[in-house]
Design brief:
The complex is a heterodimer.
Chain A lengths: L4 H5 L7 E6 L3 E8 L2 E5 L8 E2 L1 E5 L2 E4 H10 L4 E3 L23 E4 L2 E6 L9 E4 H20 L5 E6 L5 H13 L3 E7 H10 L2 H4 L6 E8 L4 E9 L2 E10 L4 H20 L7 H20 L2 E10 L2 E8 H7 L1 H17 L9 E5 L6 H10 L5 E3 L13 H13 L4 H7 L2 H4 E5 L2 E8 L2 E8 L7 E8 L5 E17 L8 H14 L16 E20 L4 E8 L5 E7 L6 E5 L2
Helix pairs in contact in A: 2-8, 3-4, 5-12, 7-8, 10-11
Chain B lengths: L12 E3 L6 E7 L3 H12 L3 H6 L1
Classes of the chains: A alpha+beta, B alpha+beta.
Chain lengths: 577, 53
Amino acid sequence: MSANGADQASAGSERVAIGITFGNSNSSIAYTVDDKAEVIANEDGDRQIPTILSYVDGDEYYGGQAKAFLVRNPDNTVAYFKEFLGKDFKSIDPTHNHASAHPKESGSSIAFTVKDKTADDAASELSVTEVSTRYLRRLVQSASDYIGKKVTSAVVTVPTNFSDAQKAALTQAAKDADLEILQLIADPVAAALAYDARPENLSADVQDKIIVVADLGGTRSDVAVVASRGGMYTILATAHDYEFAGFALDKVLMEHFAKEFIKKHKTDPRENARSLAKLKQEAEATKKALSLGTNANFSVESLADGIDFASTINRLRYEMIARSVFEGINRLVEGVVKKAGLDVLDVDEVILSGGSAHTPRIAANLGSIFPESTSILAPSTFATALNPSELAARGAALQASLIQEFEIEDIEQSIHPAVTTVKHVANAIGVLAKHGEEEIFTPIIAPETAVPARRTVHVEAPKAGGDVLIKIVEGNTHIKVTQPEPKSKENGDDKAKKDADDEDEDESDFSDDEEEEEQEKREKIWKVGATLAEAAVRGVKAGAKVEVTINVLADLSVTVATREVGAKGGVRGNIPA
Amino acid sequence: PTLPEGWSADKDFKVVGKVSASTERTIEPVGPHFLAHARRARHKRTFSEDDRI
């Protein structure tokens, strides 16, 4: 078998796979230990490793060290290059590269000119793929040093609007760095997986829920609406924005402190490149401090004209000057929920991901858009929230640990469109039960569930028992808006009305927001659609429950099985497609 | 609800309609539940067959 030696080296058991988030501003590496994902710190102690590569006297620096060279050695420092992979020069936006090595056209690709050898040598032209390769090599080296084994493979996260050409360029860059890419997965899905795969969640059943993932990065913000059905994710809508992101928040602080400096010293630190670089770096540090504390210092040695500058800012003031950016993020999130054809009442979870998601005000603002029943998963609003910066890397690491045993052909076959593109039911399927006079719909299969799917619920039989009719129906939600009662009404009347309303929203997952009741009351209610089938369960004991299992097959035919809980047999039937 | 008087059907099951609307969408190939789905899809197994293995 020695002839197969080379093949075996790449076979499953030999692999050491990690999760990588390769961002424009920062990158992370993560590894799973005992099914738990851990984000790895590099040798500088950074878990968020700046995506920057710098050359000084022929030595290569990356991450935090390279970032420091943006001040003294900007021309030989390459930053914000990930977005340029697989693109042509005309389609890129080089705004963020003004303060470092500039991108330039090189054939069909993009390149940077830096002195990566000793200072006296001529500058070299490095393609963006080559820059990525060198950076990835350093990332993987850090991971290998930490794990103590050579890392051979990785799952890498990419934005949902990454084109095939960009994916191919990334895969090539990784290959050149001797890194096998097992799979490229979407950022928002990685974040959702990071939450769903937490050990405390695994014991519980995966719930059907609608998740909004707001990935707020340094140079871009990406929002996605994801339907999570039985632990499988389907992206319903996405939005990408290059304006309301972390750099805009840095800029707000830069402007603020630059004005303060001008007032005192009559020089504008923004007019000098080095002063501007110092200003930007300190503004970012101050912004991070404001996510943790309510007060932060801003101080730069020799900011401009040899003058030191020190100042402070409190969080309230910062939130005031950054308001327009925060509002932009709100609009982005609201827009994508609408794009998915949903209402904020349909959203069960909002996952805040990315570096800018640490900002407490952003979480608070989103909390006010969504009903109280929606969980906002961010450190300031959710006690057991994960670190937003680490989500995507954790998700990638979990996926890597799941598939590292697989052959590469198995992975390719599994992610083939024939497997991933399936029908999703447009309406909910559930049972109709009578509670007093009201007919109540209990959803069993949620809308936008991928088929085949199987769900089981227990519905209460009439108290007296006897023969029970199970009606399988379709249903969909709509938003009922109740105009407010005239002000003159007593509180007691309102209360009585609310209690009455409560009955029809019994099965709804959402409780209405007390605050909003002042204006108008919006609630999600189920509208019963066509009946699919009826089944009779005879001789049910008093107070018993009936178990209903619905299995929707890939061709949309449905099998229904009903029986009294604990009883044998029951009624089965098949609804053809 | 209680069974109305005189309701009867073959084997106590009556088909009235069928699933009306669906859309073709793409599942994200991520997570343990997807991998289970892919395994079933590739071997053309049903849920219960999969459970037995």
